[in-house]
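Morning F.,

Quick status update on the modeling queue. The single chain you submitted on Monday has been processed. Sequence for confirmation:
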Amino acid sequence: MDSVAELAAAVLSSSSKATLPISCPDLVAEEFLAIRYLSLIRSVLANLRYLMLFVSASFILAIVAWNSYPFQPSQLVDLFFTGLLAVLGSGVIWVFAQMHRNAILSRITGTGANELGWDFYLRVVSFGALPVLTWLANQFPDIGNLISKFLQPGVPVIK
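C-alpha coordinates below.
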Protein backbone atom coordinates (compact mmCIF):
# COMPACT_ATOMS: atom_id res chain seq x y z
CA MET A 1 0.00 0.00 0.00
CA ASP A 2 2.06 2.83 -1.32
CA SER A 3 -0.48 5.53 -1.98
CA VAL A 4 -2.72 7.45 0.36
CA ALA A 5 -5.79 6.52 -1.67
CA GLU A 6 -5.11 2.79 -1.16
CA LEU A 7 -4.63 3.38 2.55
CA ALA A 8 -7.88 5.35 2.77
CA ALA A 9 -9.68 2.59 0.88
CA ALA A 10 -8.31 0.04 3.32
CA VAL A 11 -9.44 2.11 6.30
CA LEU A 12 -12.92 2.59 4.86
CA SER A 13 -13.31 -1.05 3.87
CA SER A 14 -15.04 -3.52 6.11
CA SER A 15 -11.83 -5.27 7.07
CA SER A 16 -10.66 -5.04 10.65
CA LYS A 17 -8.10 -2.51 11.70
CA ALA A 18 -5.72 -5.21 12.84
CA THR A 19 -4.96 -6.15 9.23
CA LEU A 20 -3.83 -2.66 8.25
CA PRO A 21 -0.08 -2.54 7.53
CA ILE A 22 0.54 0.70 9.44
CA SER A 23 3.41 0.77 11.86
CA CYS A 24 3.44 2.94 14.94
CA PRO A 25 5.95 5.51 13.59
CA ASP A 26 3.83 5.96 10.46
CA LEU A 27 0.74 6.59 12.56
CA VAL A 28 2.57 9.14 14.69
CA ALA A 29 3.86 10.92 11.58
CA GLU A 30 0.36 11.01 10.08
CA GLU A 31 -1.08 12.44 13.29
CA PHE A 32 1.67 15.04 13.40
CA LEU A 33 0.88 16.16 9.85
CA ALA A 34 -2.85 16.16 10.56
CA ILE A 35 -2.36 18.35 13.63
CA ARG A 36 -0.23 20.80 11.64
CA TYR A 37 -2.87 21.06 8.92
CA LEU A 38 -5.62 21.36 11.51
CA SER A 39 -3.88 24.31 13.14
CA LEU A 40 -3.42 25.93 9.72
CA ILE A 41 -7.10 25.45 8.86
CA ARG A 42 -8.20 26.86 12.21
CA SER A 43 -6.02 29.94 11.83
CA VAL A 44 -7.41 30.57 8.33
CA LEU A 45 -10.96 30.21 9.66
CA ALA A 46 -10.21 32.62 12.50
CA ASN A 47 -8.85 35.18 10.02
CA LEU A 48 -11.92 34.68 7.84
CA ARG A 49 -14.16 35.32 10.84
CA TYR A 50 -12.28 38.53 11.66
CA LEU A 51 -12.56 39.63 8.04
CA MET A 52 -16.34 39.08 8.06
CA LEU A 53 -16.64 40.99 11.33
CA PHE A 54 -14.67 43.84 9.78
CA VAL A 55 -16.89 43.90 6.69
CA SER A 56 -20.11 43.98 8.71
CA ALA A 57 -18.74 46.65 11.09
CA SER A 58 -17.56 48.73 8.12
CA PHE A 59 -21.00 48.51 6.53
CA ILE A 60 -22.66 49.63 9.77
CA LEU A 61 -20.22 52.50 10.29
CA ALA A 62 -20.60 53.62 6.66
CA ILE A 63 -24.37 53.86 7.07
CA VAL A 64 -23.97 55.75 10.35
CA ALA A 65 -21.47 58.11 8.71
CA TRP A 66 -23.80 58.65 5.75
CA ASN A 67 -26.69 59.55 8.07
CA SER A 68 -24.61 61.98 10.11
CA TYR A 69 -24.73 64.60 7.35
CA PRO A 70 -27.68 65.26 5.00
CA PHE A 71 -26.18 64.82 1.54
CA GLN A 72 -28.37 65.75 -1.44
CA PRO A 73 -28.45 62.66 -3.69
CA SER A 74 -29.67 60.48 -0.85
CA GLN A 75 -31.80 58.17 -3.01
CA LEU A 76 -28.82 57.13 -5.11
CA VAL A 77 -26.65 56.43 -2.08
CA ASP A 78 -29.50 54.56 -0.36
CA LEU A 79 -29.77 52.42 -3.48
CA PHE A 80 -26.02 51.88 -3.32
CA PHE A 81 -26.25 50.72 0.31
CA THR A 82 -29.11 48.38 -0.62
CA GLY A 83 -27.04 46.85 -3.40
CA LEU A 84 -24.00 46.65 -1.16
CA LEU A 85 -26.01 44.84 1.50
CA ALA A 86 -27.30 42.38 -1.11
CA VAL A 87 -23.81 41.71 -2.49
CA LEU A 88 -22.12 41.41 0.91
CA GLY A 89 -24.96 39.33 2.34
CA SER A 90 -24.99 36.90 -0.55
CA GLY A 91 -21.21 36.63 -0.37
CA VAL A 92 -21.27 35.83 3.35
CA ILE A 93 -24.05 33.26 2.87
CA TRP A 94 -22.18 31.66 -0.04
CA VAL A 95 -18.91 31.42 1.95
CA PHE A 96 -20.65 29.92 4.99
CA ALA A 97 -22.55 27.45 2.80
CA GLN A 98 -19.34 26.31 1.12
CA MET A 99 -17.63 25.95 4.49
CA HIS A 100 -20.48 23.90 5.95
CA ARG A 101 -20.66 21.65 2.88
CA ASN A 102 -16.92 20.93 2.87
CA ALA A 103 -16.21 17.34 3.94
CA ILE A 104 -12.93 18.12 5.72
CA LEU A 105 -14.31 21.08 7.68
CA SER A 106 -17.42 19.06 8.54
CA ARG A 107 -15.25 16.27 9.87
CA ILE A 108 -13.22 18.73 11.97
CA THR A 109 -16.33 20.36 13.46
CA GLY A 110 -18.24 17.11 13.88
CA THR A 111 -21.13 18.02 11.57
CA GLY A 112 -22.50 16.20 8.55
CA ALA A 113 -20.94 16.88 5.17
CA ASN A 114 -23.04 18.41 2.38
CA GLU A 115 -25.78 19.56 4.70
CA LEU A 116 -26.70 22.93 6.14
CA GLY A 117 -27.77 22.49 9.74
CA TRP A 118 -28.83 24.86 12.48
CA ASP A 119 -25.23 25.95 13.00
CA PHE A 120 -25.16 27.38 9.47
CA TYR A 121 -28.34 29.40 9.96
CA LEU A 122 -27.20 30.58 13.39
CA ARG A 123 -23.90 31.86 11.94
CA VAL A 124 -25.64 33.61 9.06
CA VAL A 125 -28.04 35.34 11.47
CA SER A 126 -25.26 36.26 13.91
CA PHE A 127 -23.15 37.90 11.19
CA GLY A 128 -26.07 39.46 9.32
CA ALA A 129 -28.54 40.66 11.94
CA LEU A 130 -26.81 43.91 12.89
CA PRO A 131 -26.10 45.09 9.31
CA VAL A 132 -29.67 44.26 8.26
CA LEU A 133 -31.11 46.09 11.27
CA THR A 134 -28.90 49.09 10.50
CA TRP A 135 -30.02 49.07 6.86
CA LEU A 136 -33.69 48.78 7.91
CA ALA A 137 -33.26 51.69 10.32
CA ASN A 138 -31.71 53.70 7.48
CA GLN A 139 -34.42 52.88 4.94
CA PHE A 140 -37.42 53.06 7.27
CA PRO A 141 -37.17 55.72 10.00
CA ASP A 142 -40.07 54.21 11.97
CA ILE A 143 -38.08 51.02 12.44
CA GLY A 144 -35.08 53.13 13.45
CA ASN A 145 -37.19 54.91 16.07
CA LEU A 146 -38.45 51.55 17.37
CA ILE A 147 -34.90 50.22 17.67
CA SER A 148 -33.84 53.47 19.35
CA LYS A 149 -36.67 53.20 21.89
CA PHE A 150 -35.70 49.59 22.55
CA LEU A 151 -32.04 50.49 23.16
CA GLN A 152 -32.70 53.75 25.06
CA PRO A 153 -32.80 52.15 28.56
CA GLY A 154 -29.29 50.77 28.07
CA VAL A 155 -27.67 54.12 27.22
CA PRO A 156 -27.04 55.18 30.88
CA VAL A 157 -25.22 51.92 31.47
CA ILE A 158 -22.67 52.80 28.77
CA LYS A 159 -22.01 56.24 30.29
